[in-house]
Design a protein that fits this description.
Layout lengths: L27 H15 L6 E7 L5 E7 L2 E3 L2 E7 L3 H8 L2 E8 L4 E11 L2 H10 L2 H9 L9 H14 L11 E15 L7 E8 L2 E7 L2
């Protein structure tokens, strides 16, 4: 009889098609775009969910799920409160890793790089495109900081909504976007017997260099 909390016999098999070097795009952004398009067609609600891993100046890591909002040659962008834990980490140590896992496709992508803030204009533009409830929550909350109760949060949102009955919620200067500029990609495809396919792209002075990694 297994002890409570013993998950050693919980497992799954991976049965997706292989990922070969011949089938890999030489441009990691193009490869990611192809995989993202497939993920969006299969699980549109979750395809843009990504783990964002940051670390403080002392090296203590922290990770959380955020949503990818746009990507391209410039990098991979998301939005948040600059006063959050991730904001504090990035102020001290402006590098991070993003990780996408698409369960139904048995695929994973890791992206490392340096992080910069987007412009205030970009943050304001996206803020004003959000639903009213999301704008109220963002403006009324100081993300990651303690609060005495749920009621306090709801009261702050209510007061802000009453102050701006026209729905024109001011964009907080403490809220905006970040963009990660990739220096490394890793594409992982689950395979039978845990003999997974992994390819890593590293940015060099000669461009992107790719190599297969052992599983």
């Amino acid at each position: 009889m297994k002890a409570k909390g013993d998950l050693t016999t919980t497992r799954r098999e991976y049965i997706a098609a292989p990922l070969s070097e011949d089938g890999l795009n030489s441009d990691p952004l193009a490869q990611f775009t192809d995989w993202m398009d497939t993920a969006l067609s299969v699980t549109p609600d979750d395809a843009t969910s990504m783990t964002l891993a940051t670390a403080s100046a002392s090296g203590m890591p922290s990770a959380r799920i955020v949503l990818l909002k746009h990507f391209g040659e410039a990098g991979f962008a998301w939005y948040t409160d600059y006063r959050s834990q991730k904001g504090a980490d990035l102020a001290e140590n402006p590098q991070a890793e993003l990780m996408f896992y698409w369960y139904g496709l048995e695929r994973q992508v890791r992206i490392q790089g340096r992080v910069e803030k987007l412009t205030q204009a970009q943050g304001e533009k996206y803020f004003n495109e959000r639903p009213l409830g999301s704008r109220l929550s963002a403006a009324a909350s100081c993300q990651s900081h303690p609060v005495d109760s749920r009621e306090s949060l709801e009261l702050a949102v209510q007061r802000l909504e009453e102050q701006h009955a026209d729905g024109a919620i001011p964009h907080p200067e403490t809220w905006g976007g970040y963009i990660l500029k990739p220096t490394r990609f890793e594409f992982w495809q689950g395979r039978e017997n845990r003999l997974h396919d992994r390819f890593q792209f590293n940015l060099t002075d000669k461009g992107w260099q790719v190599q297969r990694l052992q599983p």
